[in-house]
Amino acid sequence: MITEDLVKIACGYYKAGNSLKETAEFLEKGHQFKIHYNTLGYHLKKSGLKLRSDIGGVILRTRKHIDIENLIKKYNNKVPIRALSRNLKIGRNTIQKILSENNITILDSRSAQLAMGYIKEKKKFDLSGQEKAYIYGLVLGDLTPVKKSDYTLKLITHSTHKTFVDLLCKTFEKYGIANYKETKKQNMYRFQSHLDLESFSFLLDSKSGIIPNWIDSNNFNDFLAGFIDSDGSVILKKSGKYFQFVIRFFSQNLDFLKEIKRRLEGLGYNLSMHKNHKIGDKSYNNGILFKYNKDYYVLETFKKAQTLDLLSKIPIRHPEKIAKRELIYKINKMGFIQWQDVETEVKELKLKIKQTVLQKTILS
């Protein structure tokens, strides 16, 4: 008959993480008392000890090799679950269950990576109204914003002009990762940037193709500059025997162009609008075929004095468009009227820009 003292010893050994069978074997070897483990279980329950369930027993057997105290210590020292699993040969789910059972808060994947220094928290930015408007116009023109995660906004675009993707890098490298590389398609570059979503979430609104209310008289010109740099033109073009100074805006969104027209006309500028390409049209640019899957519209200035005035107020940053603006200023200052007087310089600049595209260089 098992004594009360042996029951107490058996309870302690069982509580230490041993099974009923192991406890019975312990009593036989250490105390020369032989008892069937089922009978031992009866006496332990009778003494008030709650026995483990079958599942609890399975869990116990699978965890016998685990030093739980050491595991918890390492986790509290910021060793991530992935590293613990690899080094201790323990499944991630098992580690998570052990931590939960011991009331240890489990960090989410991002928090764990931040704690280990695998990734860095993206810097937050509070942009000025002018910079915010310029970037919004730039993205609305020819970039695609994508919410990559709850913390990261990705910007993507392609261009044949290295000068343009270089401008994008200089614009966005202040705020996050920005780079570009040549694609397998000849003379084509792919730009991408990763930004803090909280700081730049407003760029997601550009997908709607609207001008938001926060773009007002204080930063409208900055918005126009960004849009022109991305999907507009500064042009000196022939008109019969004469020539015109033109600022041109392109878009598939007719309502968007109408809103720009409305705002500029409210400031005293005259503009014309027409359909430049219809659905199905094809065109070539530097040997690359472009096919239009939507109607494409153009909004442009046509009065020389108004174009000069607007150019002086729009802070464009694109080197190609700045070069065209400076040529316009130069020609206007010299007082030329006829195309034959300016044709050579206009064509020289056009050729210079074309050469930078073909030679994969940046206009300086």
Describe the overall structure:
The chain is of the alpha+beta class. Helix content is 49%, strand content 18%. It has 16 helices and ten strands. It has helices spanning 4-15, 20-31, 37-46, 54-63, 68-76, 81-88, 92-101, 109-116, 129-142, 162-172, 197-200, 220-231, 254-266, 304-313, 319-334, 339-358, and strands spanning 144-147, 152-159, 177-182, 189-196, 232-239, 242-251, 271-277, 282-285, 288-291, 296-301. It has a four-stranded antiparallel β-sheet. Strand 8 and strand 9 (288-291) form a beta hairpin. The longest helix has 20 residues, at 339-358. The model has no long low-confidence stretch (mean pLDDT 88).
In short:
The protein has 364 residues and is an alpha+beta fold.
CA-based shape = rod-shaped
Helix run count: 16
Give me the side-by-side strand order of the main sheet.
1-2-4-3
Estimate the helix proportion, in percent. 40-55%
- Strand portion, in percent? 15-25%
Mean pLDDT: 88
Uncertain spans, ≥5 residues at pLDDT below 50? none
Descriptive key words:
364 residues; 4-stranded antiparallel β-sheet; rod-shaped
Break the fold down into its secondary structure elements and pairings.
Elements: H1 4-15, H2 20-31, H3 37-46, H4 54-63, H5 68-76, H6 81-88, H7 92-101, H8 109-116, H9 129-142, E1 144-147, E2 152-159, H10 162-172, E3 177-182, E4 189-196, H11 197-200, H12 220-231, E5 232-239, E6 242-251, H13 254-266, E7 271-277, E8 282-285, E9 288-291, E10 296-301, H14 304-313, H15 319-334, H16 339-358
Antiparallel strand pairs: 1-2, 2-4, 3-4, 5-6, 6-10, 7-10, 8-9
